[in-house]
From TrEMBL:
Binding positions for glyoxylate per the UniProt entry: R165, H223, R226
Protein name, UniProt field: FMN hydroxy acid dehydrogenase domain-containing protein
Cofactor: FMN
InterPro entries linked to this entry: Aldolase_TIM, Alpha-hydoxy_acid_DH_FMN, FMN-dep_DH, FMN_HAD, FMN_hydac_DH_AS
Keyword annotations from UniProtKB, A to Z: Flavoprotein, FMN, Oxidoreductase
Record-listed FMN binding positions: 77-79, 106, 128, 130, 156, 199, 221, 254-258, 277-278
Location of the active site: H223 (proton acceptor)
Length: 346
């Protein structure tokens, strides 16, 4: 059977991975409400297509932190890629480089950073950091990623403690026992010259604090529903964060992106780019680099179709507050010059 959409890759991975690896990848916390809501919330948003436009030339390119990418679809940090494919993160880095998109490498990469960089020296990569209580360790790691050519530091803020992942407890998987980050205070911007992106912001209060402390970007994320259950779906938290930052920093989103329509919706609600977590691991589990490339190609092609059919020829005018209008009657949720969204989940 050909694999034609991301959920086909999910089914393939489920069949071919060991139960404990599958559970580790797929699992959420507690009752998995937020994990499931991440995908379900996208489906409650309706698109308003505009057909009376010239859509013969669609340009998916955009920039993040000043770097050009081929489409606003990049790879979220996920741990331990060797669980799904022997060459692990080296393979992921190659596929990201070939696709001309950004790959955020996890603190918990299962290949060395040197090997990952050597596998794809020309790729755009950011590094995801769990802040360690020992300032010196942070400093050494940051210096290393700077010298290896990583272009931004993504600090994950939603893991002061690991959430209650029932499958991992049942399977006695304790891979990430020591995820620190009790204290963000020790990380000062002066420790690095790289742009700092905070990952895991869901509220206007935290978004305002982040802007006040001069971060360069925010990833609206609930960790794929793997940290605190019963928080809003990422797409439902996006509008609040975008409004709070008032265009001062770039806002990105991860969580539940499975189709090109999902990407369009996230961009229309103010995200500059989206990041994809689990589907990359499904791709890895299915033929390594070829699988990841296929996952990215499918998502990009779907996004191209969604842009064309909604009447948007350019990925950049989707940006930020320009596209966010006032919610109104008749189910109209958001409207902007480039794209409008009909919503049923006011
Ligand atoms: C198996 C797995 C491992 C993850 N590891 C990390 C990690 O090391 N660091 C991090 O910041 N986020 C991690 N995440 C969260 C992802 O970066 C991202 O927020 C989430 O997967 C996005 O949701 P999606 O899987 O629905 O695309 C992980 C997620 C999964 C599924």
């Amino acid at each position: 059977m050909p694999l034609v959409c991301l959920t086909d890759f999910q089914a393939y991975a489920r069949e071919h991975l060991s139960k404990s690896t599958w559970d580790f990848i797929e699992g959420g916390v507690d009752d998995c409400c937020t994990r499931d809501e991440n995908t379900a919330a996208f489906k409650k948003i309706r698109l308003r297509p505009r057909y009376l436009k010239d859509v013969s030339k669609v340009d998916m390119r955009t920039t993040i932190q000043g770097a050009e990418i081929s489409a606003p679809i990049c790879i979220a940090p996920t741990a331990f890629h060797r669980l799904t494919w022997p060459d692990g993160e080296m393979t992921t880095a190659r596929a990201a480089q070939a696709a001309s998109i950004c790959y955020i490498t996890s603190t918990y990469a299962s290949c060395s950073l040197e090997d990952i960089v050597a596998a794809a020296p020309g790729g755009l990569r950011w590094f995801q950091l769990y802040v360690h209580p020992n300032r010196q360790i942070n400093k050494q790691l940051i210096q290393k990623v700077e010298s290896l050519g990583f272009k931004a530091l993504v600090i994950t803020v939603d893991v002061p403690k690991i959430g209650n992942r029932r499958h991992d407890i049942t399977n006695q998987v304790n891979l990430m026992q020591n995820l620190w980050l009790k204290d963000l205070g020790s990380l000062e911007t002066s420790m690095t010259r790289l742009p700092i992106i905070l990952k895991g912001i869901l509220t206007k209060e935290d978004a305002e604090l982040a802007v006040k402390h001069n971060v360069h970007g925010i990833i609206v994320s609930n960790h794929g529903g793997r940290q605190l259950d019963e928080v809003p779906a990422s797409i439902d938290a996006l509008t609040e964060v975008v409004a709070a930052v008032k265009g001062k920093v770039e806002v990105y989103l991860d969580g539940g992106i499975r189709t090109g329509n999902d990407v369009v919706k996230a961009l229309a609600l103010g995200a500059k780019c989206v990041f994809v977590g689990r589907p990359i691991l499904w791709g890895l589990a299915c033929k390594g680099e070829h699988g990841v490339t296929k996952v990215l190609d499918i998502l990009k092609n779907e996004f191209h179709t969604s842009m064309t059919l909604t009447g948007n020829i350019n990925a950049s005018p989707f940006q930020l507050s320009r596209l966010i209008g006032k919610g109104g009657g008749s189910g109209l949720r958001h409207q902007g010059p480039g794209l409008s969204i009909w919503g049923q989940c006011l």
